[in-house]
Design a protein that fits this description.
The complex is a heterodimer of chains A (about 250) and B (about 280). With about 250 residues, chain A is of the alpha/beta class. Chain A has one domain: Rossmann fold, CATH 3.40.50. Helices cover about 35% and strands about 25% of the residues of chain A. Chain A is built from ten helices and ten strands. A six-stranded mixed beta sheet of chain A has the order 6-7-8-3-9-10, with helices on both faces. A four-stranded antiparallel beta sheet of chain A has the order 2-1-4-5, with helices on one face. The longest helix of chain A is centred in the middle third of the chain and has 14 residues, at about 120-130. Chain B is mainly α. Chain B has a single domain (about 45-275), classed as Orthogonal Bundle (MetI-like fold). Helix content of chain B is about 75%, strand content about 0%. Chain B has twelve helices and no strands. Chain B has helices at about 1-35, 45, 60-90, 95-110, 115-125, 135-160, 160-170, 175-185, 190-205, 205-210, 230-240, 245-275. Chain B is globular. Classes of the chains: A alpha/beta (about 250), B mainly alpha (about 280). The interface of A and B includes residues 81, 83, 91, 109 and 162 of A.
Chain lengths: ~250, ~280
């Protein structure tokens, strides 16, 4: 079996603080993989260690391997911008570039990375990404309007379109529904189920019900350690670890 | 209860009064300068040569106005580039020791007596060439405005939410493009304001020019290696002369200089409004 991503003995420190401790797991392709755990357990850090966004923090130190298609993203010969383009990332707070238009938000990545040859190709790419994110019908007449005019849920789907426009293999989502109302949240969840046909999705959530609802595989992280990982149905019905059981029934977190 | 309300009212009254008092000097300066100077200002005043000390008509400040515009532009190009990239570095690499020292230096430089900067420019660009020259003036003005621009650009980049930086970097865009294409447009309001503050500063400074450009009152621009005049220097020279005619020119020049500064200030306010939407 080939994996979307393999993580081996990953350790992360912020200054002297050991945040992630010896994390190892593998993520199969075309599934939704949830990383759950209480706040502060290192979920978001783990996600940012995969696409090396962690390095925006000058105090962060990483040891270990993160492999995509057998290539370790921390290998010295690997270009960091290439690594980041292999992932699409969606954040906790919808963060479209507020001063850019809806169109430009999606077009920016492909344009600055030189992924398209001409305007026609770019138009098609933007349209396709917006369609994939279930946003096209709502914004097709407002492509020139600033992204800040959209509702929170629409902004988050715009961010998904922005991530998809780079044609990544893996989509990283950092609590993408944490700041959305229930209707907008369920739209995003539906969208994720649709997207896993073509992408591998890794989602961080502090909401174990959301993990149970949408994920195929789940990892439980507690105080920087990987407690348990496996198929979602198994982890939720027959957890091997006492901590996992407590978390799943809501006694911690 | 009533007593407390009364106390509040008195306090508020005192504070408001003090606020009004602090605004009085600037209003009086503006009124005074325009009352004395505006009557001399017209198109020919902006173009003509200054008058001889005695007799003749008021003339104009053409060479000094052109000189000021040249010095401002040159200082903005030199100081703007250096200041912008320094500010960017201070904001985005603030954890490095270099940035920490640079910031300390710039904060000291803001408070530096500008006459000393003028003397420094004299010693390295005027004395060796044995000639006052426009470039030395622009160089001194650049040094004066660099810390203002750098520290304001730093603030502009610092104020970009971290989530937008993460979004930009997550797209796999190179550092230089993230800073100069994506984030610059987010911070453009602050960056433009920084440049405009630098421009206003360059327009109004006198001391850095005293030892550098001479104040070639009766010459239009003849090259960067030649003496030149600037409005603040002309005001200084003419106002301290004993001639009534030159005092009138100094008043008119003051009105022009004040207008330039006010125009820059109003533009920077408009820029902020436009971008805020």
């Amino acid at each position: 079996m080939s994996w979307a991503i393999e993580i081996n003995n990953l350790n992360v420190w912020y200054s002297d603080k050991h945040i992630l401790k010896d994390i190892s797991f593998k993520v199969p392709k075309n599934i939704i993989f949830a990383i759950m755990g209480p706040s502060g357990c290192g979920k978001s850090t783990l996600l940012r260690a995969m696409n090396r966004l962690l390095e925006l923090n000058p105090n962060a130190k990483v040891k270990g391997q993160v492999k995509i298609n057998g290539i370790d993203v921390y290998n010295d010969n690997v270009d960091i911008t290439w690594v980041r383009r292999q992932f699409g990332m969606v954040f906790q707070i919808p963060n479209p570039f507020p001063h850019l238009s809806v169109y430009d938000n999606v077009a920016l990545g492909p344009k600055l990375n030189g992924l398209v040859k001409n305007k026609k190709q770019l138009d098609e790419l933007v349209k396709h990404a917006l369609q994939q994110a279930y946003l096209w019908d709502e914004v097709k007449n407002d492509l020139k309007k600033p992204a800040s005019m959209l509702s929170g849920g629409q902004q988050q789907r715009l961010c998904i379109a922005r991530a998809l426009a780079l044609k990544p293999k893996i989509i990283l989502m950092d609590e993408p529904t944490a700041n959305l109302d229930p209707v907008a949240s369920s739209k995003i969840e539906e969208l994720m189920l649709e997207l896993k046909e073509n992408y591998t999705i890794i989602i961080v959530t502090h909401n174990s019900q959301q993990a149970a609802r949408i994920s195929d595989y789940v990892a439980f992280l507690y105080m920087g350690k990987l407690v348990e990982v496996g198929e979602t149905s198994t982890v939720f019905t027959k957890p091997r670890h006492e901590l996992t059981e407590k978390y799943v029934v809501g006694k911690i977190g | 209860m009533n007593k407390r309300k009364l106390k509040d009212k008195i306090m508020l009254g005192v504070i408001s009064l003090l606020a009004i008092i602090s605004a009085i000097p600037i209003l009086m300066i503006i009124i005074n300068i325009y009352a004395e100077g505006l009557k001399y200002v017209n198109l020919s005043f902006l173009i003509n040569f200054p008058p001889p000390p005695i007799g003749g008509k008021v003339g104009g400040i053409g060479p000094a106005l052109v000189g000021s515009l040249i010095l401002m532009s040159l200082a903005l190009v030199i100081g703007g580039c250096i200041g912008f990239f320094t500010g960017l570095y201070l904001s985005e690499f603030s954890h490095t020791r270099l940035a920490q020292y640079a910031q300390l230096f710039l904060q000291i430089m803001v408070e530096f007596p500008t006459i000393i900067i003028g003397l420094f420019a004299y010693s390295i660009l005027v004395a060796p060439l044995k000639r006052f020259n426009a470039f030395a003036g622009a160089f001194a003005l650049s040094i004066v405005i660099i810390p203002y621009i750098a520290l304001n650009v730093r603030e502009a980049y610092k104020s970009i939410p971290h989530s937008l930086k993460e979004a930009a970097f997550s797209l796999g865009i190179s550092h230089s493009k993230v800073y100069l294409k994506v984030l610059l447009s987010t911070a453009r309001r602050g960056v433009l304001t920084a440049l405009l503050i630098g421009m206003a500063k360059a327009a109004g400074e006198t001391a850095p020019l005293l030892f550098t450009i001479l104040g070639a009152t009766f010459l239009y621009f003849e090259g960067l290696d030649q003496p030149i005049n600037a409005i603040p220097l002309l005001i200084y020279n003419f106002a301290s002369s004993p001639y009534e005619r030159w005092h009138q020119v100094a008043w008119g020049a003051s009105a022009v200089l004040l207008s330039i500064i006010l125009a820059i200030f109003i533009i920077s306010r408009l820029v902020i409004k436009e971008v805020r939407m």
